[in-house]
Amino acid sequence: MTEPVxxxxxxxxRARAGELTGVRCGKCGALAIPPKELCPECGERAWAPxxxxxxxxxxxxxxxxxxxxxxxxxxxxxxxxxxxxxxVSLLGRVVDIPFENLAIGLPVRFRPLVxxxxxxxxxxxx
Length: 126
Ligand SMILES: [Zn+2]
Prior knowledge:
The chain is 7% helix and 44% strand. The protein contains one helix and eight strands; from the N terminus they run αββββββββ. β5 (77-84) and β6 form a beta hairpin. The site of zinc ion has 8 residues, from loops.
């Protein structure tokens, strides 16, 4: 019996519970997160879910000071691309880390952010 491929909806449901889940290609072994329709490496659709530890380091970051429409109350805030220990990268909002402490290579840990019933990816201190 094959386990159902994790969908974006499942990804965010599990993320809300504090679990990061990637998908691994059954053909070429590539790891992807969040889930994608087709493997970006080989074009196949042979995904299997893989639990991820949620630990990583900042690969790049930026501080948002001009808010997108409807988010004026949120600025300033930082977003970062985090390279997880499993080798995949994920974009998320930085929480509980002062801007002046942000640095490439800083260890961080996944943290689900829930606002107005929507779950998004956050990263806090490791
Ligand atoms: Zn593949």
